[in-house]
Amino acid sequence: MGSASGDRRLGLVLAAVVFVFGWLLAAAVNYFILFVSFVIPVPVGVLLAAAWLTAAVATAISAWLVWRRLRWPGLAGFAVLTAAAAVLMASVNWVHFYASTWYAMHRPDYAEALRYLDHLPKGEGPPEGISRLNSDSGASAWFVRVWSGIPGCAEGFAHFDGSPGSLNGMGSLDGASCVVRPAVQLGDGWWWVE
Description:
single chain; alpha+beta; five-stranded antiparallel sheet; 5 helices; about 55% helix; elongated
């Protein structure tokens, strides 16, 4: 009798591991989607579809394992867990979550980069992917591009001298003629801009 109980427990542990792995992998792809799409030349939609497919396959395998061990009561509880995971994944704004947590983890690096950029030697431009944006009203910002859409506008981090206010006329990014709009205030004058 102990062997059947041990097999049941092992099957449920395996179901939990497969389920958690599939959904964590999908969450990781959603979290790092801008970085991944910058490194791997695959459209964002394809990467996101692969992430959701991975979660769906892991869910199906886990559901089968739970069904074999617990039948209907276990499957009902599993359905509630799956619905909660799917709602959480779909309701999180992953880009804004990425920007906030990435900045929080690298706050000293952004301060160091700003000190460097504000004291560039005369005649030396900023590194690739960083640009100085100026508005007609005299406001300026350092823009650190994280992602550029093709076609589309760039997204990234920007440090504003003062309040960003209305950024109409702030300039174009990479020739895309896009208006930069602050989306998430990160602190110390840094914003996530889209």
